[in-house]
Specification:
The complex is a heterodimer of chains A (about 270) and B (about 220).
Chain A: E1 6-11, H1 20-29, E2 55-62, E3 68-75, H2 84-88, E4 94-96, E5 102-104, H3 114-118, E6 125-127, E7 132-134, H4 140-143, H5 150-154, E8 160-164, H6 165-179, E9 184-186, E10 196-200, H7 218-248
Parallel strand pairs in A: 1-10
Antiparallel strand pairs in A: 1-8, 2-3, 4-5, 6-7, 9-10
Chain B: E1 6-7, H1 11-35, H2 41-45, H3 49-79, H4 85-91, H5 111-135, H6 142-170, E2 185-186, H7 188-194, H8 196-205
Antiparallel strand pairs in B: 1-2
Classes of the chains: A alpha+beta (about 270), B mainly alpha (about 220).
The structure holds protoporphyrin IX containing FE.
Chain lengths: ~270, ~220
């Protein structure tokens, strides 16, 4: 029952790293701030956390003239169509919403952390106190009331926008054409298309923590698409085989004991 | 207890067997509860999937102990193949699949039982290692943790399907077997059919325990 597939576009070339989105996300989702540490970067906290669902990454790179320049990237859940986390989640806590995004029912999460190993973007984060995993749900509570996600709402530069999938992808490619050079669209060509896509100024490998070819790990495919059905098929086959053995060959019954030496006929 | 019954297993053997069997089955059932959404109801019966996970994880600790006891106890009898007799038995499929005039006599456990023991011992160890890593995944690198899940599933495929062979042959597929693991006392006829060589060995070594008979008097009776 798909309503309308939504895509959030992150145009990193327009991002000034004001981190308004980071704060808005915390505010709407009522996530606490925790003590952080100075590790020599404005990127704060250093990584996504259970209480930080989106984070501006500050990448320092050298340009042609060897001058330092910053690449900003808003990190967070990419909302894959073929989402490895949904595939592995044993309890159905992670699920596909009617917008194509990946939601999370926290009351169902059992803290098994299987999604953490499966996610090609290393997005889900674990909280020891609640024994649950957390990540961005693209403000499901807002989009179902026709509101923009908190991050999009807060963005002052137009780096963030959300809309119908096709329109947003077109917008991204138009923007890349205008930018020229190494600029590229990231997301629509992976894992059957993500519902968060980037316009990147540089090649993906220039950005920290951004996989060049994200995909559902082969281990997940081997496990869920192959071994999982095999387990029931094999057991069912053995049961059927045993039944056939019983009715065709018959059980292995002990011979009549020869203790009373009177051997019958035949 | 009828006179003439023979003791096939002692209490320790049976306790070890059932500790292993019950913990293994609980792990299989709770594991299925996590593996298939359609089996999530197993968790509901335990008060939620989270409780089911606790049951699974802590039953695993019992399984580790039981597996260790079982491997120590059975390794010599069921862990090593003896040639050429075991090979002859395999060539005849133990007489289970087609008619064989005289099934080759093998040691206490036949190669089929040895195969099941080895599957339980080896896949069981695999389940322990992969399961423990899955229990604390954050202290291991992601590339390693990722492979633990399919390996855990692989071990499950092997143990679970083999279990049904075992269940069949331990009950209706080989009548007279089940008492070996319940009371421990079996009939001579069953031993003669199922473990003829073992019966002979016990008679030669004078270790045969027959109900209602003194140990010394084992010579008469057949
Ligand atoms: C409720 C189901 C089960 C029944 C009725 C059952 C019955 C038996 C019987 C009768 C034997 C002795 C066979 C003989 O002496 O010829 C046996 C042996 C054995 N059982 Fe089970 N068992 C059950 C479940 C299990 C499970 C779940 C495991 C695995 C974890 C297991 C592992 C073993 C092993 C390793 C042996 C030693 C010899 C062999 O490989 O057959 N059993 N069982």
């Amino acid at each position: 029952m798909k309503k309308m597939e939504l895509v959030k576009l992150i145009d990193t070339t327009r991002c000034t790293a004001c981190r308004g989105c980071q704060v808005a996300c915390k505010q709407w989702n009522e996530l606490p701030g925790l003590k952080t540490k100075n590790w020599g970067s404005y990127q704060n906290p250093p990584d996504l956390q259970w209480n930080t669902w989106t984070l501006i990454r500050f990448n320092e790179v050298a340009d042609k003239d060897n001058r330092v320049k910053w690449l900003f990237r808003k990190d967070g859940c990419m909302h894959c169509t073929d989402a490895a986390c949904v595939k592995v989640c044993p309890s159905g806590a992670l699920y596909h919403t009617e917008y194509g995004t990946v939601g999370i029912h926290h009351e169902r999460c059992i803290g098994c952390k299987e999604c953490m190993a499966a996610c090609p973007f290393e997005i889900p984060k674990y909280d020891r106190d609640t024994d649950k995993v957390y990540k961005c749900d693209l403000c499901y509570s807002r989009i179902k009331d026709d509101q923009q996600p908190a991050c999009v709402k807060s963005c002052p530069t137009g780096a963030l926008s959300i809309g119908a999938k096709d329109a947003m992808i077109k917008k991204a490619y138009d923007r890349v054409k205008k930018l020229g050079g190494d600029a590229n669209v990231y997301g629509d060509q992976f894992v059957d298309g993500t519902h968060v896509i980037y316009v990147l100024q540089e090649k993906p490998e220039m950005y920290d923590h951004l996989p060049k070819h994200p995909r559902v790990p082969f281990s997940v495919v081997a496990w869920k698409d192959f071994l999982k059905p095999i387990s029931l098929l094999a057991a069912g086959g053995v049961l059927a085989g045993s039944f056939l053995h019983y009715i065709i060959h018959g059980p292995k019954t002990p011979d009549d004991i020869q203790e009373n030496k009177t051997q019958g006929g035949e | 207890m009828k006179k003439g019954m023979i003791q096939a297993t002692d209490a320790f053997e049976r306790i070890t067997h059932w500790l292993l069997a019950i913990s293994c089955l609980v792990l299989c059932i709770t594991g299925l509860g996590m593996m298939f959404h359609s089996f999530n109801f197993v968790g509901t019966m335990m008060g939620g999937l989270k409780s089911l996970k606790y049951v699974h994880n802590f039953t695993a600790l019992i399984f580790i102990v039981a597996l260790y006891m079982a491997v120590r106890m059975w390794w010599k009898e069921a862990g090593v193949f003896v040639l050429p007799e075991d090979l002859d038995w395999i060539k005849a499929a133990g007489g289970y699949l087609w008619h064989v005039d005289k099934v080759p006599e093998v040691g206490k456990y036949n190669p089929g039982q040895k195969a099941f023991f080895l599957v339980v011992a080896l896949c069981g160890s695999l389940m322990v290692v992969t399961g423990l890593i899955m229990w604390a995944p954050l202290i291991f690198p992601v590339w390693l943790v990722r492979w633990m899940y399919p390996l855990h599933a692989l071990g499950f495929v092997a143990i679970f399907s083999f279990f049904f062979v075992h269940l069949y042959l331990g009950t209706i597929g080989s009548p007279g077997s089940a008492p070996a693991m319940f009371s421990g006392w079996v009939t001579r006829a069953w031993l003669l059919k199922q473990h003829p060589k073992w019966l002979k060995e016990m008679e030669e070594h004078g270790t045969l325990v027959v109900y209602g008979e003194e140990k010394e008097s084992i010579e008469h009776g057949h």
